Amino acid sequence: MSDIPPTMPEHRAGFAISGVPHAEGLAMTILEIGDGNALTMIPYAEHLIGDPETRVIHGGVVTSLLDNACGIAVTSKIKRFGAIATLDLRIDYMKPAMPDQPIHAFCECYRVTRSIAFVRGIAFHTDRSDPIAACTAAFMLNTAAKREAKP
Amino acid sequence: MTPAEILKAANLAGTKPDLSALVASIPYARYLGIQVDRKGTEITTVLPFARHLIGNPVLPALHGGVVGGFLETTAMLQAIFEVGGAEMPRPVDINIDYLRSGRPIDTFARAVITKQGRRVINIHAHAWQDEHDRPIATLRGHLLLPEG
User: Fold this and answer.
1) Is the ipTM of this complex over 0.95?
2) What is the per-residue pLDDT for A68?
């Protein structure tokens, strides 16, 4: 991982993501990172609540977690950072998240073409077969290269 | 007041819920800093730029999850405003298209109910920054209405 540009935060297993303000705000942590997949986690926190009566986490938090985990899965596959953009993201909400429990996301980039990466993932508490939400996403690759090419 | 208390109060009074109070009663919406600009029945949500919303520090650009959560909240507020009820609707699925990178400036959004069924609402929302005709993201989703 020596070819990482110094401007982007390094993605390392066992560390909270730093340098990405919103991921920091959610205390998002990478637990495992492989060749095209990533397991991330956010701890339960009061400012992430969507419904104060049930203390269930807001759907938007799950969206942020899955979007970020999908992005990490893509960068782990293409071995480059900072040059991808989400094209679309679909999320199916299966059940509300339980209060006081961390939420995990496992995302895998299962196909990469010259310009597009395809990713799928799930969010869950402890059991991957009992998901909170599932997602599919497509990412545009090499967006930074095109941006830099412009005068 | 909690969201449920705000909705109950509106139901009792036979008025539309106070969307600004509603959005302020949701911790994550408050953390993002979402505001509501209501002119009659026209609702625009506002997401003032703040550093903690950034997802790509190099560009810099808003986090995709922030834009998604903002659109989702906009859709929920529009649904509760039009449909009423004592509970917030629940998202079943959402589909977000990212059209342009969210620049580090204020973002706005509106939602339109495409079809209201007995249990499920189909809703579309779009977000823009300085030009309304240049959306940065759109959302299509289904919301489940509480039973009863």
Assistant:
1) no
2) 94
